[in-house]
Specification:
This protein is α+β, with helices and mostly antiparallel strands. It has a single domain, classed as Nucleoside Triphosphate Pyrophosphohydrolase (Alpha-Beta Complex), CATH 3.90.79.10. The chain is 20% helix and 34% strand. The radius of gyration is 14 Å and the shape is globular.
């Protein structure tokens, strides 16, 4: 079997307190009940930014006003899963009312100090820590 990594996108969406939006996923075979950033797979014949825009709309009902690519994360297979993703991380400015779809059972705005209270999937905790280290003001000014 020819195994290759899949391409995914994840969005860091902040509120005015610099808290990051996390979604709780209960309907997944990998890490049920875990929290992660909005996003998903990039489909064939779709740009990464288009995937980000449609995943955010689908999962949160919000529209992307602006998206900035920040960095990527290698999600390598491990003892819990044989999934291998290369995940492109974006900072997304959004508008509209937050309304999660059936993929998620809950949402939370998470501060840096509260991060340890959440069981987070797909290495998203590494992404969030790196984002906070970069500083939102440095990202928004670019």
């Amino acid at each position: 079997m020819d195994k290759r990594p899949q391409l995914a996108v994840r969005a860091i969406i902040c509120n005015d307190k610099n808290e990051i939006l996390l979604l709780k996923r209960d309907n997944t075979e990998y890490c049920p009940g875990c929290w992660n950033l909005p996003g998903g797979k990039v489909d064939y014949d779709e740009t990464a930014e288009a995937a980000l825009i449609h995943e955010i709309k689908e999962e949160t009902s919000m529209d992307v006003r602006k998206a900035r690519f920040l960095f990527y994360l290698d999600n390598l297979p491990d003892k819990e899963s044989d999934l291998h993703f290369v995940t492109l991380i974006f900072h997304a400015e959004v508008e509209g009312k937050l309304n999660i779809n059936g993929e998620s059972s809950d949402y939370s705005w998470v501060s840096q100090e509260e991060l340890f209270n959440y069981r987070i999937a797909f290495g998203n905790e590494v992404v969030m820590k790196r984002f906070w280290e970069m500083g939102i003001s440095n990202i928004v000014q670019k």
